[in-house]
Backbone:
């Protein structure tokens, strides 16, 4: 369901609660009909819908409204929450009115929603599904490992579990391969996707999974247009908290980052310092300068992001000699 509140066009009055509707096309039509009655004198093309990001739960509504010429603003749920100050208790109705009040106060900062490209949306769905398959494979492997660690005589139950788990692992491996093949087919179907994919994948340390993750979460380098913004989004950019002369420390921003993307970047960084001579030298300089391992790896991840964005910007593949002379 979706709870709806509204604010009159002068933005001076407090939000009013409208109703709760099913999160489907029938509910959206009822919502529009009731809003037209509540907000006489304005057309739907003049309205601004604001909702908090809830992943797949708000995607259908945003698409439906945008395709009918209405303006939609998807705002970070954390951004809205932190703007509300101290709250005691919550419910869907109160949240709806709080979002409407947030939109009333900050409508000048609205960023209008755009329906994502079909190929990019399909690529993201495939990537997330592959991650689900990988998580399942890991769970099955852990179950087999726990069974083997028990030792002792092999019981009929243990034989069945091992046999069935191995069968499930083979099925999951095949599904992962098919999913990766489908991802490559989607990339080849779009010239812009294929061009950016080839540029970024030319970096030693970047494979299919890392490259696709960077593309889908950046909106093919359009929604997050700069390396610095992507570094902030991934949680690899460094921030400090200072106050007066006594407080000065590095801010922990892990909880504000995309941990899934940061995780695959960690794999790319570890691979890069083994197979990429320029990045290995960069990493060794950081260690020699007194940086701890985690900080040095974080610096490598940040550098990888800047290289990837530079390749896309200049429409070129990775050239170790050129990058070593320019970026390192």
Residues:
């Amino acid at each position: 369901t979706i709870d709806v509140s509204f604010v009159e066009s002068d933005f001076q009055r407090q939000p009013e609660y409208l109703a709760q509707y099913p999160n489907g096309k029938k509910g959206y039509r009822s919502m529009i009909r009731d809003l037209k009655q509540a907000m006489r004198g304005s057309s739907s093309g003049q309205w601004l819908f604001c909702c908090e990001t809830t992943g797949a739960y708000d995607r259908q509504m945003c698409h439906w409204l945008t395709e009918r010429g209405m303006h939609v603003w998807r705002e970070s749920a954390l951004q809205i929450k932190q703007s509300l100050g101290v709250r005691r208790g919550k419910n869907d109705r109160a949240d709806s009115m709080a979002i409407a009040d947030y939109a009333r106060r900050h409508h000048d900062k609205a960023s209008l929603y755009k329906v994502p490209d079909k190929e990019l949306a399909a690529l993201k769905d495939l990537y997330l599904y592959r991650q689900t398959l990988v998580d399942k494979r890991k769970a099955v492997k852990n179950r087999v490992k726990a069974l083997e660690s028990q030792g002792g005589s092999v019981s009929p139950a243990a034989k069945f579990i091992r046999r069935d788990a191995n069968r499930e692992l083979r099925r999951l491996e095949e599904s992962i391969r098919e999913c990766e093949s489908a991802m490559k087919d989607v990339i080849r179907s779009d010239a812009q996707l294929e061009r950016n994919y080839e540029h970024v994948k030319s970096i030693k340390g970047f494979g299919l999974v890392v490259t696709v993750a960077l593309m889908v979460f950046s909106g093919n380098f359009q929604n997050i247009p700069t390396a610095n913004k992507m570094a902030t989004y991934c949680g690899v950019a460094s921030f400090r908290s200072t106050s007066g002369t006594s407080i000065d420390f590095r801010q922990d921003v892990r909880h504000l980052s995309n941990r899934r993307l940061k995780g695959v970047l960690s794999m790319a960084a570890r691979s890069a310092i083994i197979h990429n001579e320029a990045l290995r030298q960069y990493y060794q300089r950081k260690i020699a300068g007194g940086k701890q391992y985690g900080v040095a790896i974080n610096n490598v991840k940040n550098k990888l992001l800047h290289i990837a964005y530079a390749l896309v910007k200049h429409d070129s593949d990775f050239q170790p000699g050129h990058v070593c002379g320019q970026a390192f």
Q: What stands out?
A: The beta strands are 2-6, 16-21, 48-52, 71-75, 240-243, 247-250. The radius of gyration is 25 Å. Residues 323-328 have pLDDT under 50 and may be disordered.
